[in-house]
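Dear Dr. H.,

I hope your travels went smoothly. While you were away I took the liberty of generating a structure for the chain from your last submission, since the lab meeting agenda had it listed for discussion. I wanted you to have the full record in hand beforehand rather than looking at slides cold. The sequence, exactly as received, is reproduced here:
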Amino acid sequence: MAVGDFTRLLEELTLQRSEFHKLMCLKSNQLKDIPDHESAKTLVDEIEDYYEKRNEVAVKINYLKANRRLPEDVGKESDPETLKLKFVENLPVDKYELSKKLQLALPNLSKARTNLQRAKDPVTRLKYSQKVAKLEAEVALIRSAMKGMD
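The corresponding predicted structure, in token form, is as follows:
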């Protein structure tokens, strides 16, 4: 991505994030005007929606800064079907080797799930949720390959 495009996109995302933050703050300030005996659920839902949108944009900004592109710009090589095919092609054909690969994958999956539960900020949560999903898919593919050998 060219420097000018990168800067323009970063500015747009930063403005978007600050707009969601401003709207979230304005809605939060309206909470004090609601009497105690009335439900504030709709207002709280709006606040949470702006909070989620703000954090989604923040994740995009962090990804853009780290990778100089947005996550949607990912090419064909990271298509889930392509990745699945590459993973399956590289699986060993021996049941013993598959078992060893599974024994290595299961502790990593457990660690990723623990890290996901402990994650506090949305960026870290997104990172570990993607890692958990990937490892779960790998474990499922290994187990299905092992079943096919029976």
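Two observations you may find useful: The helical segments are 3-30, 41-67, 80-89, 95-118, 122-148. Residues 3-30 form the longest helix (28 residues).

With kind regards,
E. W.
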